[in-house]
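Obj.: predict assembly geometry.
Materials: sequence records (below).
Method: joint structure prediction, all chains together.
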Amino acid sequence: MNQEHDKLDSTLKRLPREVQPSHDLWPGIDARLKRRHAVRPLWTYGMAASLLVAVAAGALWFGVGMHHQAGTPQEIVASGTGSPQNAYLTQRAAFAEDSLQSAKDLSPATRAVILKNLRIIEGSMQDIQAALDKDPNNPRLRALLFDLYQNEARLLAATQQAQAKTTARDSL
Amino acid sequence: METATAMHVTELKAAAANDDHSLADRARNGDTKAFEQLYRRYVGRVHAVCLRLAGNKTVAEECTQDAFVKAWESLKSFRGDAGFGTWVHRIAVNAVLERHRTQIRQGAWVSAGDQELMESVPGADADPGHGLDLEQCIAELPPAARMVFVLFDVEGHSHEEIAGMTGLAVGTSKAHLHRARQILRARLDS
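Observations (raw structure tokens):
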């Protein structure tokens, strides 16, 4: 072993085993641990979306009217689930409200994309619903409408997940 | 004599209550005070490996935090086969490597040579010719060469283990180590 090797090896042996951080990291860790308890697991967003889609499927299968109810998500939620026809719409509105509430912390560009896509889906739903009013038993229209409800649920779930990831990243 | 024995038993009980496994058990049941004791016991070791692997003080402190948060979340999987220190150390290495992979994907790897690194090395004034120089030289290595050097020469992993951790081929790991050593020897000699 030559002299250069000796110098590197001997210097390596002197490296301290421990290096303390410049400040106490515990308060930050402690805050994150407490926050984790309150954070909803990401899989629950997907589960909520799946449940919503299942309700939509059931409603469509049994031919429940899916006419859009006027009002904001909050108003629809406040109106309760008095009639079976409103059960799906109420759940959907609650999920939408939860998702849009979550989206408040996302970047303006991301929010704009989400809202634009929601409007496209909403417009398509209204078109198909209008067609279904004239031809209520058309299976193709029902399938199309179901696809749109699925897409909407997926978009809302993705919005909540994106917000959850943003929150988790900010807390790092 | 009896008093001495009683004191000895009390000390043993206190030591047992504060050993890593007992603290980990308590932490697993949600006791953050117990987890804080583990943090205080091992933060120096964890931060040292994060600092050397990342070559950047800010990233190292973030990875140290990440490692302890991940350890807390994974306590259920800690069976105590290895010591808590070894376990959390491994989590810390993975935290830095994961960040490295993410930054490579985003094309935003932090450049090496963080001047702040020097401030965080203890005994920097006392030993300007050895430890400090090497810490700074390690920080200034190219990222891949630095990671392999730290994992192999400082942490004692084999090239096969490094390949498993980093996704590099064994031959590539050896090449990075060779390059790192060449650079370090040249810098230490200059």
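Conclusions so far: The interface with chain A takes residues 32, 35-36, 39-40, 43-45, 47-48, 51, 57, 60-62, 64-66, 68-69, 72-73, 116, 119-123, 127, 130-131, 133-135, 153-154, 181, 184-185, 188-189 of chain B (CB under 8 Å).
To do: check interface contacts against the pulldown list.
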